[in-house]
Design brief:
This protein is an alpha+beta fold and 263 residues long. The protein folds into three domains: 86 residues, no CATH class; 59 residues; 94 residues. Helices cover 63% and strands 12% of the residues.
Length: 263
């Protein structure tokens, strides 16, 4: 919280100084929106940075134990959502005491009962830290993606406040959207819709109406060639740009050589 407030205060002060140097008018109402935006972005950045930093520190420096998932604890469901299982693991600490602790979060597809995972734990911790990141792929992926997004945003805000060129930030953002977000979103929907169809044919979702199955099939049929075509277009564009860059380099060398050796 304090990091967020301090960072926001520093950035707002730099922006005010920057505007005063340019002779622009400054009002309190005009600063409300930037303050709220910086508070949100910096708050999310420091929150995610804390998660990533603590996980990285625990993975490399803290004592780790082999823990087995022994049971589930369920959250309180309501009329709009079902109860979500939270894995409870059991392990022995350095004093050879058997400890049962929760991983601290629920998931619709929890870690399997009997599965052994690596955990980090210090005496007095309410929850263990799950160090088997491959067992929580979705959560880890979401945290890393949003941490990357808010890191870019923080860099952009800082450079803008310092009156530096931020054009490369937009290049990074556009590259991320074009090369990661679009193909990733298409692949995500293909996987989800294919999984729904698989569950239907396995008899686990046989109550799904035929029209819904038809829609899933239609979108999968459309998305697969669309993803292939999109990726092909990207690679062809990249190859064209590389050839264009090489031709420019060759032309530059020829021009320089002709200048050095005039007829």
């Amino acid at each position: 919280m304090w990091y967020t407030l301090i960072f926001t205060a520093i950035i707002i002060i730099l922006i005010v100084i920057k505007k005063k140097k340019k002779g622009a008018s400054i009002s309190i109402t005009g600063l409300i929106l930037p303050i709220l935006a910086i508070l949100f972005i910096s708050g999310m950045f420091f929150f995610l940075a804390g998660i990533v930093g603590q996980s990285a520190y625990a993975y490399f420096f803290e004592k780790k134990y082999d823990a087995k998932v022994v049971r589930y604890q369920y959250t309180d469901g309501d009329s709009e959502s079902d109860a979500v299982p939270i894995a409870i693991v059991e392990f022995k600490n350095d004093q050879n005491q058997t400890i049962q602790k929760s991983i601290g979060y629920g998931a619709s597809h929890p870690i399997e009962l009997g599965k052994t995972i690596k955990v980090s734990y210090k005496e007095g911790d309410k929850y263990i830290k799950n160090m088997s990141f491959w067992e929580q792929k979705l959560i880890v992926s979401l945290v890393l993606v949003f941490f990357f997004i808010f890191t870019i945003a923080i860099i952009g805000i800082t450079m803008y406040a310092l009156n530096r060129d931020i054009s490369f930030i937009w290049a990074i953002i556009m590259g991320f959207v074009i090369y990661v977000v679009f193909p990733g979103a298409m692949l995500f929907f293909i996987i989800i819709l294919s999984w729904v169809m698989w569950e239907y044919f396995q008899g686990r979702k046989d109550d799904m109406p035929i029209w819904a199955l038809g829609i899933c099939s239609l979108f999968v049929t459309i998305l697969i060639p669309a993803l292939i075509g999109y990726c092909k277009t990207l690679f062809e564009k990249e190859n064209f740009m590389q050839r264009n860059r090489r031709s420019k380099v060759i032309k530059t060398k020829i021009i320089n050589l002709s200048k050095k050796n005039p007829k």
